[in-house]
User: Fold these one by one.
Assistant:
Number 1:
Amino acid sequence: MKTTLRTDITVADICDGFVYNQLEGKGLFGLGGKLTIQPEYQRNYIYADGGGKKEQAVIQSLLKGYPLGLIYFNKVGQDKFEVLDGQQRITSIGRFVTNKFAIMDNGNPKIFDSLPADQQAKIRDSRLLIYECEGTESEIKQWFETINIAGVPLNAQELLNAIYSGSFVTLAKAEFSNSQNANIQKWSAYVKGSANRQEFLERALDWVSKGDIGGYLSAHRHDNNINQLKTYFNSVIDWVSTVFIDVLPEMRGLEWGRLYEEYHSKSYDPAKVSADVKRLYADPYVKKRSGVFEYILGGLQDKKLLDVRVFDEATKRSVYAAQTTAAEASSTSNCPLCAVGHGANESKIWKFAEMDADHVSAWSKGGGSSAENCQMLCITHNRAKGNR
Ligand SMILES: [Zn+2]
């Protein structure tokens, strides 16, 4: 890879013909049309996120004469460049110079046009440190894969988008990484993250590929449609929202793709499901509400999913003491199930550490975790009972 350091390019040059497209993921241009600021493998603009602190900091740095760090261009043709690293910084500058946001000046918001002429000139005349790189596509991409962009490292999906850039990723981003997509709100009930950071795209790919996102992108890289990806994702979302008519915060980020695969061929009565959800949410013994959905889909069997509240140590110790005293008096085992058996342990006194607490009346049938519903069983009997 060949690199050339350029120190002659100013902010005014870069912002010549700057285009900012509100629909992220679209091309942004500068340098009088010679520079593509957002090639298809680049990430969406994220410096305006979180109140715009980052884009403000870029402008304050220019005004104070602080260095903005290195910017890398990929030379893709005679007088044609793409931004390899520095897209966020350049977009911040271009957006400011075209009055898209204001900086705070002694508590007053100031857009570019309202700055005094000397400050406008200071920004326009700032020189940027730019490396122009020339190399093969794989050299550039490999290098791109190893760098971090201005303090916000690429996440896994942004990296994959860069590695497998092409028609498929472009179409997929237009659908799943576009924060203007009207479906985002519905998706957000079930999928965590933001469109800008590619998290909806990542989930959609994860579901359709059963976890092999890289393999899927590689196989579909040059496809001219995303029909399968879109259909599968919508099937999962439609299924969840049909089975569970309630939308609850704990539904966000669950493994809906896996649950869809496991359970979508079964039929559920949404009214009964809703009643079960409400009952389990109201149950003080259910510690893990995010497990409620899979517990219901699986037919209310696997209570491990709910992390049901267990007996506390003091309760276990006092029940153990009472059982052991009574057992010693009658020369039987302190495990009530051993005591009624006819095996070698019929009269065995187990140590506390050799026993575990059991709900006499099962939690799933309404039994609580108080001392009255607690019995200590030897570990073997406790396991055997727990599995029923
Ligand atoms: Zn026993």
Note: The chain has a mean pLDDT of 87.
Number 2:
Amino acid sequence: MVTSKTKDFQKVMEAKDQTAPGLHFVGKKEELIQAKRSFRTLEGRDILIIYHEGVFHAVDSYCYHAGGMLQNGDIEEINGKMCIICPKHKYKITLTEGECLYKGKDPREKSPVTRWYSKGVKQRIHVVTESDGNVFVKLSVSPAWIESDYYQGEKGKVERAKAEAAEKKNPITVDDD
Ligand code: FES
């Protein structure tokens, strides 16, 4: 008997077959919308897929700064850009470019005022596409080193594990600015 579940599964498998090289099926659109945050490992890379205000984003799962898990980070619009706030030390990372934003003053100005600045691209961002209710991620192929790459590698994995163990002993608390 062919049930609707079987048909759905067949559709998904067909969609997978149709994917262009490097395009990974990550889930049904409705499921990812409901989940809001979904963790996937693609080609050995840990990725966070976020659905926020009608838009999908895919970012490296571990914060470039010290490997914090971005999965539970709040999302806020800062200076016109949607950012995920790392739960560990509250760094603000834009979801579309992977830039880290910080507040500061330019001492070269006559009367320095506090404003948002960018530290540049620190977190690797991946491309999300949708087709027929299926969602796909294509990993970023930018050859330049991006700091979040570190926590995807073996050394980074070891450091993350050490930091997690240390944090269990002495939990970190950071105030929002
Ligand atoms: S680990 Fe993310 S802000 Fe430090």
Note: The chain has three helices and eleven strands.
